[in-house]
Amino acid sequence: MSGCDCTPTVSDLKPYEEAVELLLSHAKPPTATEELELHDALGRVLAAPVRSSINVPGWDNSAMDGYAVRVADIPAEGTSLRISQRIPAGVAPQPLEPGTAARIFTGAPVPEGADAVVMQELTCQQDDEVIINTVPQAGAHIRRTGEDIRQDEEIIQPGVRLLPQHLGLAASVGVGKLSVFPRPRVAVLASGDELQMPGEPLKPGMIYNSNIFTVAGMLRALGCEVIDLGQVEDTLEATKQALLDAAGQADLVIASGGVSVGEED
């Protein structure tokens, strides 16, 4: 019996996990970055941390519609106080006069001198006075400065794929642009003389090229820029040239086709 040169067997192949680890070990992390407006940053990967330049809230504000008061002015339930001012959101208040209450609305700044807010359901207004039907605790219904976000706090970490909530969070602290990594450029190609593009009647012995659309769609869904290199002939020379061309213009090359031990692979 004459000897022969054996082709690689399945046992010579690497396990999937090992193959992925090997690929990742050769991958170079991106170094280039670009700055984008918030509207253009959705789905991109953040390259630098986002820090808040402000406190959120930026001032002590009311968590309820009600009345800003001094706890010391309310010794018992049923205490009546004169309403000295009205404070809607967006209005800078005057210091609270002793022995008075300020009509206040959710989100409005708590006036200097007030140390509690009484929700309106626990009060009864009569003309320019309000009856307080509870004895409030100091700090009640007041959202403190920086309670949600402190100035210089890191609010979004680099490496995050930006979702709508990240854009809203950045906008809430006044950030208008974000530093992101460029989209990965991925070249895709399909090999196989039996492949035919969809849209025309299938010829005898052919199959429709479906893999390329699946792969390209998955890549675009991940935010990649796809370079479609089309179909490649089933020859070693054509495959080598296609891979060389792809390597010159892409960060990653994905090929779909026979890669087993058959004579045509």
TrEMBL record:
GO terms for cellular component: cytosol. It catalyses: adenylyl-molybdopterin + molybdate = Mo-molybdopterin + AMP + H(+). SUPFAM superfamilies: MoeA N-terminal region -like (SSF63882), Molybdenum cofactor biosynthesis proteins (SSF53218). InterPro entries: MoaB/Mog-like_dom_sf, MoaB/Mog_dom, MoeA-like, MoeA_linker/N, MoeA_linker/N_sf. Keywords: Magnesium, Metal-binding, Molybdenum, Molybdenum cofactor biosynthesis, Transferase. Signal peptide: none annotated. Residues 187-265 form the MoaB/Mog domain. Residues 15-174 form the MoeA N-terminal and linker domain. The keyword Transferase applies. The keyword Transferase applies. Pathway: Cofactor biosynthesis; molybdopterin biosynthesis. Pfam families: MoCF_biosynth, MoeA_N. Its cofactor is Mg(2+). One of its GO terms (molecular function) is metal ion binding. GO terms for biological process: Mo-molybdopterin cofactor biosynthetic process. Its EC number is 2.10.1.1. Belongs to the MoeA family. Catalyzes the insertion of molybdate into adenylated molybdopterin with the concomitant release of AMP. This is Molybdopterin molybdenumtransferase.
